[in-house]
Amino acid sequence: MNKLxxxxxxxxxxxxxxxxxLLTLLGVVIGASAIVIMISxxxxxxVATRKQLESYGDLNNIEVWSGHGEQxxxxxxxxxxxxxxxxxxxxxxxxxxxxxxxxxxxxxELSDRVIGIKPEAFPxxxxxxxxxxxxxxxxxxGVIFNKNSLLRFEKPSRDGSxxxxxxxxxRGYFGPRNEEEEEEPPxxxxxxxxxxxxxxRSSDDxxxxxxxxxxxxxxLTNDRSSQFSYRNIxxxxxVKRLRQEYDRMHDRxxxxxxQYEQVFIRAKNVDSAQKLCEEIExxxxxxxxxxxxxxxxxxxxxxxxxxxxxxxVISMLVAALMIANTMVMSIYERTKEIGIMxxxxxxxxxxxxxxxxxxxxxxxIGGVFGIAAxxxxxxxxxxxxxxxxxxxxxxxxxxxxxxxFWLILxxxxxxxxxxxxxxxxxxxxxxxxxxxxxxxxx
Amino acid sequence: MSKPIIxxxxxxxxxxxxxxRVLALKRVSIEFYRGRIYCIVGTSGSGKSTLLxxxxxxxKPTRGNIVYFGKENIVKMGERKLAKFRRENIGFVFQSYNLxxxxxxxxxxxxxxxxxGYSKRMRRRAAKVMLHKVGLGDRxxxxxxxxSGGQQQRTSIARAFxxxxxxxxxxEPTGNLDTKTSIEVMELVTGMARKLGQTLIIVxxxxxxxxxxxxxxxxxxxxxLDITDKAEVENE
Lengths: 442, 236
What we know:
The complex is a heterodimer of chains A (442) and B (236).
Chain A: H1 3-16, H2 18-56, E1 61-65, E2 67-69, E3 72-74, H3 78-85, E4 90-105, E5 108-117, E6 129-132, E7 142-145, H4 147-151, H5 171-174, E8 194-198, E9 211-220, E10 232-235, H6 236-249, E11 262-267, H7 270-282, E12 286-289, H8 290-333, H9 335-343, H10 348-384, H11 405-432, H12 435-440
Parallel strand pairs in A: 5-10, 7-9
Antiparallel strand pairs in A: 1-11, 1-12, 2-3, 4-5, 4-8, 4-11, 6-9, 7-10, 8-9
Helix pairs in contact in A: 1-10, 2-8, 2-10, 2-11, 8-10, 8-11, 10-11
Chain B: E1 6-17, E2 20-32, E3 37-41, H1 48-55, E4 63-68, E5 72-73, H2 79-89, E6 90-93, H3 105-109, H4 111-115, H5 120-133, H6 149-161, E7 167-171, H7 179-196, E8 199-204, H8 207-210, E9 215-220, E10 223-229, H9 230-235
Parallel strand pairs in B: 3-8, 3-9, 6-7, 7-8
Antiparallel strand pairs in B: 1-2, 1-4, 4-5, 9-10
Helix pairs in contact in B: 5-6, 6-7
């Protein structure tokens, strides 16, 4: 028999018993959409969880502080930093150190904190520049400003102190961030000559601080793309030096070696971020990474996922039994027909395939309609249930049911295979029917 | 005479009825020749139907061989090979017609061609030609339930001959028909076999039917009592 004939005969036979075919199909549709909906729900939870975490910060980023280990306090010394550098799974790493300086640009001055970062680490920090460029290793005195700091450049008052009338201090964190309200900074640092000195002009220091030539190379955008968006940034080595000078001026532990305030690590991926954090904590350091939350949240959702998946699989199993039952029934009914076909010389394989095609068709068609139904149900749930199903766990407006393309292929493939497998036994049964006995049955 | 088309050699068949062994055929040997019409007659239980089933490969003999065309021993064939053999060489006419009720007359006739993998167009043409030959040219689109017994049997005859088999078996082809229809059917089936030079083997308990045969094989209690060639009868 050619394949087309087998297919058309299969379709005709299904059509012949419309009601029964329809009922079996309905079973498969319910089974398939149960699986798709359940999996889409668990994907929805996962996607929303990830989105929520990512809104708090990049999942690959790790922050390291000094901490309390088994041997007492562990500080971020150069020695410890070198150990951290050797850990596996790091894409970039930089120590962070900060000091307090005063920038002078034309008639304007700004006293602010500046942090030092290794220039090599710049490309992965997620910094976005509004103007200018990032620091390179040669930019010893280069400065990258953030927009909010620039707004606080002011003319010093007669007594030399800065920061009288305008309250811009925390504007960056709490103030409105609308584009329209953006103010122009009083001075264009990129084109104006820039100098800086350690500390603050108003400090009661007898020793006049040294004034350095500096150069503004870039201005950060005013968004929250990175935790560094509200910092002024310079070369690590420069800030280290300035810090030592500052400490000497204030006679603060100048003999001790420099300790870093923080180490910033960008891991290659979320998994290595989780691993890195564990290793760093073992060293007695403090570690913070969003990836740890991800792991915990994923563990929490795993149980939900398994329950949901289980419900889907059970309903598909029931559908498979329905298909098998339908096919067995149909073979009993058609025993005589099978006998006639056998006597007329139908190949055994053809008879087997006739029944397999029917059950596979039920699986395939059921799968297609099941997916259509799932889309409908998914749409309804996303529209009317919102994030209500899982309480406040999910961010506002997140879809609770997400059907990715692979899930569609998976569902159709799965139902077709279930159809085929449940047709296997009945079709072997049909092949085994004795032709002689079959034509004698009425 | 030419070589026999079928050689039945020392064939026995034992059925188990519960614990009892029933010897349906006792060491039967017989030869069939191309282009002749045979009638196997006998009362019920004579073993005539068993012989037909063995000849058609629907059952296996307990012992003995059945060799077609001097080389193909169907006793040694597996089920797959037997199906192929039937598909290529054998046609069937049954007492109870055995048409598929959900298929129209032409579709029923074209069944053997489906199994041979013919295209639908070729099947339809061949089936309609056959239906025309059996006098049912206007019934092609009818379902079996819409036809009389005689018409159904003629459809089944069309089905048996459509693939031009070398041998056609007919098991009590007139058993369900009235006398007038029986004559029509017998004339149809023997006429077609003769026209195409096919070998026709009919099993019947009806002596009238036997009169259409070239050779009448009489059976009783599992053995062949008598083989009479019509030519010889006429000569006597």
